[in-house]
Sequence to fold (466 residues):
Amino acid sequence: MIAADIVSDEDLELLLIEVASLYGYDFTEYSKASIKRRINRICLIDKHKSFAELRYKVLNDQSYLSRFIEEVTVNVTEMFRDPFFYKELKEKIIPQLGVNPYIKIWIAGCSTGEEVYSISILLHEANLAHKSIIYATDINPTVLEKAKTGIYPINQMKLYTENYQNGGGTEDFSSYYSANYDHVSFKEYLRKNVIFSTHNLASDRSFNEFQLIICRNVLIYFDKVLQDKVFNLFDASLEPLGYLALGSKETIRFSNLNQTYKQIEKEKIWKKIK
Amino acid sequence: MEKNKINLGIEILVIGGSAGSFEVLLQILPNIKPNLKFAVLVVLHRKHNSNTSIADLFGNKTVIPVYECEDKDNLMPGNIYFAPPDYHLLIENDRTVSLDYSEKENYSRPAIDLTFKSASDIYKEKTAGILLSGANRDGADGLKYISENYGTTIVQNPNEAEISTMPNEALKLFEPDYVLGTKEIIELINSF
Fold:
């Protein structure tokens, strides 16, 4: 059975405005259908029987806030998800980055870090890690803590190994981690050049200039207005001739970047040409 | 099986299918007449990581344009849209699409239930839903939800479905407006 929504459109709008003004987390420009579903889902899981109950908890119990944020934002991710994307990155983009004296990459919305370790592996295999810095950011401090540990369930490794190989990886994937009962730890050297930090795409500014910005399956949760703001933030944070990489069903087609960025090949990677 | 129902003018037709549905869609979609007054949105469980586009597979068999949705695409009447593999598909008030890469539902992503509910929330009684062959129970609850919101519901005749689990799960839950074979489904769509 599909339960009727506990939180209506009007409730949702009210709550998001209150959360923004009280805590500074602004979800008001998130895509409505998606966030409404997330919030109704929290009500079901945490057994809030009414909107008033949820609202009281969120506004009066600061310790509940981190749970709220964790459930509202989606943190599902994979290593080497969409192997063809990683193949294009490995073959077409990373070698280009290599001509720079140093390489700065921003992974925006890095969640629990699976993409960060994937990119770090590509940089090591291209012998570019020593002159690279990856800035890995997320709105949610809890997932960043997890990302820093590099510890993932061992039952994911079969899929990740397949992804890695389909993405053109030729090394022994298991050499990048050590197994420990039901978990694996990715090797320390893979995060040596990574800076993990909170950053809120909806409200924080540009903090550096990069040659590559990777932001995959984050913008799908934003409405068009916020998407545009974030595209401008990325544009301001990319060096001339830098690259922007998005999720496989995300596009700059509806934004003004469409004029000044050129898609490289089939995958969702664009080059800043002006 | 047909109930007396005033046809209020369909604005979206959502079709859900899993194992055994691809062949049915190959019969249905090419036979839909052009100039539809509504959008057709198909949610099909299929293997992720195949590099062939579903829009290409169907596009050269149909008169009607076929698209695989990208985020924020506008659902326009007269077109056929497919949910992309490995994303849930939700619909916004302005009839654009929001993709969602959250947890699987009913072991599925895209989940038919989610898109059926979302379509029903937006288009209300102007939603028509069809549930085709499949080996799990995704879509049954969503189709019931469409029915409860006064939309039009169609279940593929289980005797004709390659795998009857999915149609049967829906029939266990409620009585749809129609239980039809492939030929009748085509006729009904063309009468909307």
User: Anything to note?
Assistant: Helices of chain B lie at 21-28, 54-59, 112-123, 140-148, 165-173, 182-191. The longest strand of chain B covers residues 12-17. Residues 22 and 114 of chain B are 20 Å apart (CA to CA).
